[in-house]
Amino acid sequence: MPNASRLCLVAVTLLLCACESELSIDLTDAPIDGATRVQLAVSAVELLGSDGTVTRIDSQYTDDFDMLDYRDGERLRLVDASGELKGRHVGLRLRLDDDNAFLRKDEDSTPIELLSAGEYATVDLDLDDGDARTLIVDLDLRFSLIDRRDTLGVYQMIPVIRVIDADRAGRIEGTIDANAIADADCRDGRAIGTGVAVYLYTGTGVTPGDYDADATVTPLAQPLAAADVREDAASGAWTYRFHYVQPGRYTLAWTCEADREHPQQDDDLSFRDAADVEVGEAQTVTVNF
Question: Domain named DUF4382: which ranges (predicted)?
């Protein structure tokens, strides 16, 4: 009987463990112009419940790291959690540590000063017993970093993120005509390709504009993300990619002036062309300009 009781206890324990919800959270990067290293650390992830409660999950990777190592679709695992995560969550944000944070550009390293944790990014996360989900957090450095080198000697940071369900994520990729990028108006006396980026907006038919955290704008007018445009060494084509995109309808627009982006003001960027796109679940869509 004692052996039978122990076997029953083990079986019940295993059953309870098997019914726990599981959540993994990865970090990826949308890069910024000219940087050769962006050193950060993540101490925790916060989930905002539909009832207003906040669940803090400590990061399993708390060392300093180079954010640029996790661009081009690469991901850093921040969280593998299980247990008391049941319920509906509607927001997510990162808790960053700026003790050793800096940005290196042209061999010069400038400290990064964290101004706030930023707004919660919208998520649709409903966890029941036995559920297993993986979320990807895309930290957009172009919209997060504020250049205050001239006045304060630092980059200030308010993290701007979006959250994607890894199991449903699609991808948008394409090219931009090389002659358009080489055009004198696009180059404006700079090296070819400087400031060229593609912006992504929620909804179709959106009139494109730059990211302006202080503006009173409709949600559709604010860009979700930006992707660098780079020359492929083998083919010579100028390519871009949004590696992780939630299924839905979007507007794409490209500009030669992304290096002028200041996330706390209206930069009145000029966009060369725009196109509508619809992304299905786990689908790769090509849009060429």
Answer: 21-155
